[in-house]
């Protein structure tokens, strides 16, 4: 970093000039309004294009839920009882709770699901979704859609949106 007062070339990150002791200018930083930050601030969860959620009953065998997840090509499935979402089961739940140690036909979804999952709102900013999924360790999250239905977004949807540089 070049000192504007005495011309000495200082190490990057130094706060004061090694030659004259004057304050050095702050290093250039990325502008907060660059394209990626703007997309995170201005974009809404609905822009992630949530897919219709796939659901099963809590008493369904895990084997049936996994079969449905494979057919629908989804990594998470909502657990619905009497029209209300009571849980979510993900591919990680199956891997850690069932695979190799329990019979997936003998274990019900209710035994491995996460109860009362968090939801995203369709109008919430992408930055909120990114933060919430990161802090919660979620790869999939249900979304309350404007029409009253429930959709699902994944971390892959979020990354695809952020990578799209239209």
Name the features.
elongated; alpha/beta; CBS-domain; 5 helices; 2 domains; 8 strands
Task: Report on this structure.
The structure is a single chain. The protein folds into two domains: 1-30, no CATH class; 40-163, Roll (CBS-domain), CATH 3.10.580. Helix content is 28%, strand content 19%. It has helices at 35-42, 62-72, 91-97, 126-136, 155-163, and strands at residues 51-52, 55-56, 76-81, 84-90, 114-115, 120-121, 140-144, 150-154. Helix 1 (35-42) packs across helix 4 (126-136). The longest helix is centred in the middle third of the chain and has 11 residues, at 62-72. The radius of gyration is 24 Å and the shape is elongated.
Radius of gyration, rounded? 24 Å
Sheet/helix structural class: alpha/beta
According to CATH, what is the class of the largest domain? Alpha Beta
In terms of per-residue confidence, which ranges show pLDDT below 50 for 5 or more consecutive residues? Answer: none
Based on the coordinates given, report the CATH architecture of the largest domain.
Roll
Counting DSSP H or I runs of 4 or more residues, the number of helices is 5
Q: In CATH, what is the homologous superfamily of the largest domain?
A: CBS-domain
Major beta sheet summary: 4 strands, mixed
CATH topology of the largest domain: CBS-domain
Summarize the structure.
With 166 residues, the protein is an alpha/beta fold.
Helices and strands, with pairings:
Elements: H1 35-42, E1 51-52, E2 55-56, H2 62-72, E3 76-81, E4 84-90, H3 91-97, E5 114-115, E6 120-121, H4 126-136, E7 140-144, E8 150-154, H5 155-163
Parallel strand pairs: 2-3, 6-7
Antiparallel strand pairs: 1-8, 3-4, 4-5, 7-8
Helix pairs in contact: 1-4
